[in-house]
Every structure is written in C-alpha cells, then in structure tokens.
Amino acid sequence: MTPQSPSAQPDAAQQALVAQFESAYRLELAQSAPAQGSASAAAALRAAATAARSLLAERWAQTQAEDAARGSAHPVRRVHYLSMEFLMGRALSNALAALGLEADLSRVLAAQGQSLGQVLEREPDAALGNGGLGRLAACFLDSFAELGLPSFGYGLRYQYGMFAQAIQDGRQVEAPDDWMRHGAPWEVPRVEVRYSVGFGGRVQVDEGGQRRWLPSEMLEAQAYDFIVPAHHSQRVSTLRQWHASAAQPIDFKAFCQGDYAAAARHRVTADALNWVLYPDDSSEAGRELRLKQEAFLVSASLQDVIARHLREAGSLQGLGLGNAIHLNDTHPALAPAELMRLLMDEQGLGWDEAWTITRQAVSYTNHTLMPEALETWPVRMFEALLPRHLEIIYEINSRFLAEVRAKFPGDDALLSRVSLIDEGQQYGGERRVRMAALSIVASHRVNGVAALHSELMVQTIFADYAAIFPGRFHNVTNGVTPRRWLAQANPQLASLLDARIGQGWRQDLSELRQLTPAAADAAFQQQFSAVKRANKQRLADLIRRELGIQVNVDSLFDVQIKRIHEYKRQLLNILHVVARYQAIVANPDGVDGKPWVPRTVIIAGKAASAYLTAKSIIQLAHDVARVVNSDPRVGDKLKLVYLPNYGVSLAEVIIPAADLSEQISTAGTEASGTGNMKFALNGALTIGTWDGANIEMAQAMGVENMFVFGLRTEAVARVLALGYDPRLYVEQNAQLQRVIQSIAEGEFSSGDVQRYRALTEMLLNRDAYLLMADFAAYVDKQAEVDALYRQPEAWLQRAVLNVAGMGDFSSDRTIAEYVERVWSVKSLGLNQPRA
What we know:
Blueprint: H1 11-31, H2 38-68, E1 78-82, H3 92-99, H4 102-111, H5 116-121, H6 132-146, E2 151-156, E3 164-168, E4 171-175, E5 187-199, E6 202-205, E7 211-214, E8 217-229, E9 236-246, H7 252-256, H8 260-271, H9 284-313, H10 319-322, E10 323-328, H11 335-346, H12 351-361, E11 362-365, E12 376-378, H13 379-385, H14 387-407, H15 412-418, E13 421-422, E14 432-434, H16 435-442, E15 446-448, H17 451-459, H18 463-468, E16 473-475, H19 482-488, H20 491-501, H21 522-547, E17 556-561, H22 570-586, E18 599-604, H23 612-629, E19 638-643, H24 648-657, E20 660-663, H25 675-681, E21 685-688, H26 694-701, E22 707-708, H27 713-722, H28 726-731, H29 734-744, H30 757-765, H31 771-789, H32 792-804, H33 811-823
Parallel strand pairs: 1-2, 1-10, 2-9, 10-11, 11-15, 15-16, 17-18, 17-20, 18-19, 20-21, 21-22
Antiparallel strand pairs: 3-4, 5-8, 6-7, 8-9, 12-14, 13-14
Helix pairs in contact: 1-2, 2-3, 6-33, 9-11, 11-12, 11-14, 13-14, 21-24, 21-32, 22-23, 22-29, 22-31
C-alpha cells in the first residue's frame, strides 16, 4: 500500500474552523469565571479541539462509508488492532497539521490575545499508555490513516493511566494522572455502541448439549472514539476505547437503609476497570483486576467486530477472510477463546467452522524474549472469572496436543513444554494458562519486531512451537511515524529537510537517502548545527524552569529516556557518570593533554510501582546528581539531570535536543526499541549494544556511524553458560572498583551505607544483565564519543548520515509489511475469493 495523494484544504474548511472556533471560544469563556492567562488558554484549547474535531468527524464518516462499501473483492482485510496501551500524546497539534490549519488557528488565536504555542501546552497527554508498546500502537494508528487501511484500534479508556511520577527526596512517588479532570475534548462518545461483558458464574448445558455461560456479574462496555487523521489524504483511523460500567443500577433497598457503600459496591467494582493501566499485580486483587481488564477489552472489541461484519455482510460467512484481529503482545491473548465462545455459544457455529474463522482472523506480535514477561494466569482464577473460556482453552489444548502427538510420537517432554496449561512445574504446583502459547496456537502468523528478536524468538522461548509450525513465524521490524517524530517534534529540522530534498520524505521516508551528499556540505552542516542548538536551548530552558538546574547548551547532551528496568541498564549509565565524576575530580584539567568534553547526562522514565530495584536506581540517579551538580570542582564539565513524569510531550522536547542516544540494553534482551529510531531520525548519534533494532539501524546508516560496544548475544550466552562471576570483572578493573566502592560506602547517600547495599550486592553477586562484564567496553566507547565531539565537523557529518539512513524505519513501511504478510487476504494462502 502507498499513501494517498495530498489533498489541499479548501477555503471552506478554513472558514469552518474559524467560525466554529470563535463560537466555541465564546461559549467556553461564558461558562467559565472571568480570568486571563492560563484560564483563557484552557478555554481556547477546548474551543480549538471542538472545532478541529468537528472537521475530523466529517472525515470519519466518509472513511467509514468507504470502508463499508469496499466489496468482497477488496484485497485488504479490515484490521482490528487490540492493545492494552495507546500512548497518543497531545492531539491538537497533530490534528491541525493534518488539516493544514495551523496558520489559520494561530491567526485567530492572536486576535483573541492568545498564542498557539501557549494553547498547545495546555493540553495534557492522554494517559492511555506507558512506554514503547503503547507508543508503537499510536504510531501504527497514524500509519493506518496515512496508508488508507480499513482499521480500528481497540483499547481501554483509562481515567488515570499508569501514574503521574513525582520525585520527593530523590524517590519516585506515584499519584493518579488525572488527565481527564477538565474533560476529554478529543473523544467522541458512541452512545449507540454498547456491549455486555460477563464474569464469574457457571456453565450450563441444555438438553441438546449446547453449553451456555451464565455469568454472575455483568458489565456494560461503552465505546468512545478517538479520531486519528492522515496528513496527506482525507482518511482517518479510529481508536475505539471501552469504558466499563455496572449493568445494574444501585441496590435501592440498601440505599434506603442508609448503607450507601453496599448500594453502590458493584458500581465501584465495575468502575475500577477504568482507573489504572497495569494495576499493581503484587496482590491477588491487583492480578484479578488486570485479568478482568484484559477480558473486558477483548470481549467488547470482538463483539464490535462481529456486529460490524454482520451489519455489512449479513452473515458470518467470510468473517475471517474479511477481518484481521491482531494481538499486540499477550495482553489481548484471550481473543481466540472469546472469539470461539461468541461464534459457538452466541452465533451457533460448530467447533470446526468457528476454529477456521479464528485461525484466519487472529495474528500475534511478540515483544519480549524474557520468559518471565510472558503472561500466565492461574487456572483457579479462570475457573472463578472465566469458566467458559477455560473450557474452550482446554479443548483447544486437547486438539493441539493430539496434533503434536501425531507429528512427534513418544515425545512427552515436548507435549509438556508446549501445552497451553502449565501443570505447575514452574509455579510451585499451581496450574496456569500460558497466554503466549494460546496466541501462537490460534494465530496464522506470529512475528517479532526486529531481525535479531525474531531470530532469537524461534531459537529460545518459542523454539518448540517453531518446530511444530515452521511457516508461522516471521519478522516485521518496528518503525515510527515521521509526522509526529520529525515534522511535529522538530519543525526546524523538518523545514531544513524540505528545503534540501523536498517534502516527499513526509510520505515516503526512504527519500531521506537523498540527504547523504549533504553530510559533507559545510554550509548544510552549519544549518543543521543551528537547528540542533536551538532545540538544546529549548530543553535547557525547560530543565532550568522545572528543576532549577543550569546546563551548558554547548555541552554534549547524552540522553537515556525509557522505562526504568534492569535490562535497559540505566544503572550502567549512572556507573559511567560516577566514573567520569571521579576522573574529573582527580584530573580537573583533562586527560592526555585534552580538556574534558562538557557533558549533560539526561535520564527520564518511570519504574513500575512495585519494582523496588528500578525505584532504587531512580533514587541513586538523584543522589549522584545532587553530589555531581553541586561540586564546584566539576562545574559545567558534567551534569546529571533526571526529568520526572516522562511522556510523549516531554519526549518531543528531549529527542530533538539529544546529541547522543543511549540504547545500552544487554544484547539479546531488547526486542526492538523505537526510541533509538526517533533519536537517530532527529540527528542524535547512538551508543548502543548489538541488540534489537540497533543492528538494522547500524546496517542502514553504516556501523561506523554508531558507537557499538559490549558483548554480543552469542558471547552473552557463552559467558552465562561458563558460570558468570561479576566479581572477577570488578577485581580486574580499578576504575570499576572505585565506582562500586564509592556507592557502597555512602559517598552519594550522605554516608548511608545501607541505602544501596542491595544494588551493589546484586552487581557483585548476580548481575543478571552483565553490567560488570560490559562496563570497561562502555567506558572506552564513551571516550570515543568524546574524541569525535571534539571534532564538530566530523560529528555533524555522522549526525546527518544518521538521519539519511533512517528511511527504512517509518511505521508506514512496517504497516505495509504487515498488510503484505499478515493482513491481506493473500497472506492467508487461500485461492478462493473472500465471500
């Protein structure tokens, strides 16, 4: 598929926006208390959103009509992308860019005494996701629209998202992210789209042997739509979010007796599904809530898929040939069981027909190589909450194992490893449902998200399934949308690219390769440098405003922004900061006759609320920053900055300002990464391991243009197989000894030797992610970074080549590959036309 041709905005659209904005703005001001400044900016934001949304609603209606009239000969199935996360970011700037109306709204706002920039800053990030998984889904929605793909994204309407992160005394503190407290002007309630979702109860068998689930708890799923526009056509894609409410009103008798809590208890229980993304699963209640959220998402979405298909086709015939149901990781892995239940119990199909439809429709993307990250659920929890689904999973498993037994006779160990039910060997005797296994068995295609990840996936965690289904596994490397992550996040660089190579890259990112000759052009280098410095100044201003830290704009901005996790190795970054700090104190004038390259290290990211090690890493970062940033011997030579409450809007400021991108996961642990792509697209050089999409990026831009260090996947496996002893690496490296010792002895914790004992003992005794093994190589590579940064022209040449090499990493390319290999009728390998 290719993007549709741009369509110029007619004057009528501009006039409609102006008129609707002015009307909505007057209404907003009339409804709010008289105020100036921020209050009127908020009113302007709501008015602008209302006006833009009305124009997008027209595009939505047109898109739905086109998709409904596609006819049976259409080669592309309608895609239904199920994900627990959609990290959308702010919507107004994206909508205005897609509508081509930034200048018009800016002019109207100026007449009202407002600036567009101030109004845009008033919009909160939609708290519908957390990290790379959710942002990938958001990029995909953009590409769905840009490529004209018939599609729906399906998610949950979280009221508070994951959490808002604050820092108190260096410690992460979680609070509700109340992003909807002033309303959600971008969502469109679909009051006519509502489905019932059940939990608990029992399975009843009628006289004819038909099994019917009788839930004891019923919820209602109400649809809210978030419209995502194309930038070069009239098409849109839709994020349909589900909001849970109790099916029954209050218990009136209990209310009349004054027991108000009892009267509304079931309503509170239902509403809890809407509150938080990824509830803390360290408690039984948290685990149960999370399973209910996943089941709720899947059931409402699949009921919607079936209803739409019946409305358009009149029967279930061709359901699997006309609709693709894609699972974004294992969170929606209940989809095969729920689809089977709906087709058999509610629509009256037999097993074989329902299974054929399910296998045709369902496909699955895996995002992890870590066995512990593959979701499993206790059988007892299924028995309590989803008894009919458990029956169906048992039947799927029975039929699947019979096929395996026939293909691999006598291999009982294989049967145990691939069974959808873990009989308790890994969980202290507790039987559990393996959700990744269910996804694989029920899907017609399964993919990883980078070449190395997909290769390792079939060699390690899914090796047995790959032997059983050799043609089922494939790779689709991730990508990012250039509209959000270059055109909007870095408009000055986008304009520079437009002037040099034209605007075609906005639709076809491969056109960035035309930039290659400019890398050696001194005049272009200076223009490129000026854009980078302006972006660094913007970030420096934000750091000073938010944290009170003054950073040197001409220092090297060394950035690591991502979820805080041991395998992502923010701790390795901090250890290097400590080593650098100690070296500066020991040699203030520099080393080897060369002065220190000033460096500002910037870290941002959230730790899961129950992840104590990750939270300790955040605290260490703040403790080290406190010491380093206040030491007069260091001055501007080194600063460490931790920016709180990382999200899309903050990333849009940080990424264009970065000189160096830290992508330093232990080789073989990062599935792909998309932050690495965003940084390189904006002219940052990467220091990274040979892991995830770093590999394909290095191959695309030239490995000499990336700072690659550390053990590779094969070497990691050998070290672990031989019996890894991290203390040996420490004993052989005096610099590393000093770093660990200073942390352990409380140099950065006001003498508190207990604060980081667990961290240092972990590094010395376990070090599961091989920080000690990679430390020396990392420090040496950072010295190479310094050496290149001392040569501005050479640095700029590599930075431009990074941008020029990013043409393959557009989400448009990613989605086109999904269509070709997974979502087209052709991908099913069927010769017959779709009914």
